[in-house]
Amino acid sequence: RLKKAKLRVEQAIKEKKIFSVQGPYPVIRRLLRARGWVERKLPHKSRAPNQQPGNQKKQQREKRAGGGGEPLHPPWQRDKKNKGEGEDEDKKEDKEQCTEDSDDIHDLMSYLVQDQVPNFLWTIRLSNIDRDLLPRIEVVNRFPRLYALCTKEGLCQSLQNLSWFEQVDLNTFFPRCYRLGFMDEKEAFIEDFRLTAARSLLKLALQKVGDRPVGTEQPPGSDEVPGRRRSHVSHPMPSTARLRCPLYPQLVEEALEVCEQHLGVLGHQDIDRNTPSPCRTCIAWDHFLQEFYRVAHEGARLVLSREQREQCQDVLQRLEEQLPQLGIEGNLNVWIVKPSAKSRGRGIICTTRLEEVLELAQSYAGSSARVCEWVVQKYVERPLTIFDTKFDIRQWFVVTDWKPLTVWFYRDCYLRFCSRPFSLCHLEPARHLCNVSIQKRFKTLQSDPRLPPDKIWSNKQFQEYLAQLGRADAWQRVIVPGMKAAILNTLRCARDHVGSRKGSFELFGADFLIGRDFKPWLLEINSCPTMSPSSVVTRRLCANVQRDTLRLVLDRRHNPTCSIGAFELLYREAPVSSCLSVGVQLEVTGCSLR
Prior knowledge:
- This protein is an alpha+beta fold.
- The chain is built from 20 helices and 14 strands.
- The longest helix has 24 residues, at 183-206.
- InterPro entries: TTL/TTLL_fam, TTLL_monoglycylase.
- Residues 302-329 form a coiled coil.
């Protein structure tokens, strides 16, 4: 056995086939071993070495080999008592996937190559790897400094600079987003919330039929108020007297005035104005919002004249020509508040109240952190649903180079469903957050018997569903081109702030929501997307994308015509001699000529 192991190790060293894997990636390990690669098992950086007399020279030799930290020992000398100790809580979901049984010959070969620098590294975090070793590894699956792309705040900030790179309107693929830790963006959000409330009131007014109250999606017999959520802020239940209390008659007129003023701003009629935006000062906003809440969320009655109804239709039609997101806004003014740098749906809150968002932002106003804690984004109130259930799409892509930018798009993806029917009356996670880590808390709930129990579909199943709707063309003509364009536009905005390293690559997972017109809306981009086989579909697709990624980054280096599975080249930038670095705080200043 030792002789066989030595022969395989010698061959792997000669062919530069030494690899290391850190994290829950049994598929990567199995595929590389099948290719003749030998694994060097790296120590956990967080563990302190045991200083024992007589081992100093051995430890120094191992550190020179690039390990640092805990020395490696032969498999027969390992202490397995503390195996798995200190695992990060964030990775519990990934740890649920099965791992390979220990193979003595692989352990032996790993011991024999402990002095070798790996030629290939697949890790869940770069920070887990020794700093002295990392620059010496030829191929690495992670890029450093992905904050501008893979955090919610960084993505929001990067996309604000889109106009410097492409003649594309950000609002056509990314729901409006603001960083609450920055005063100018906080004020912009407040103005946006108010303007959206005014537009929503006009929509609600047009839904008035006879003497029925508008704006209420509250089902008969329900004891919950539409738009309310269980959170750190509670709202009193509306009393019967409050519901019967008439709205002040100028409410619709004020909404119309605000929307007319906003149309003027959109038409640049305020270009030489030195005063604050008229949208901020033309009405008493605190009073207006309280009345809007009564109409939208408490079922208060609203009476319209025929003239007002015609005015509402005219104003909304003109706004639709100017605002690409008017169709996804709905009429309840729901917003979603997200922690800036958390994943797996943790800490996300849906709300319909401005004061709740501001209270949350204020609670972290005194933080000494350099980055803001929260972002707030317009919630897509009119998503495409399947069997009345909300879903999103996890779409993979790989970046193999940033300079020049080279992107590969994966043709297969999967859908993630919520556990309960979509409803804006109830804003709990089971209806609105599609993350697998969130929905697994609701395993006993089943939204519709036509959906699988594991709440996952492949893109092939989705295409079959679209064909049943008579829209088989929507996937190739609308959804896929929209996802590709959103990914590419985002990468162009973030590229100057990402750490570029020759030989590195990264597999990303982009999350998209689909509107009722089949347009995709980018929600976020994830580095190191989970490969956990949480369903029959993901077990197959996650294994396939890992296999094809190895083909792309390893096989293709030596054979450009080899198969790369379901990957296709999305974009390869023409090489340039120099690249202009664009700042993020650019502005134009000047004064009026009149």
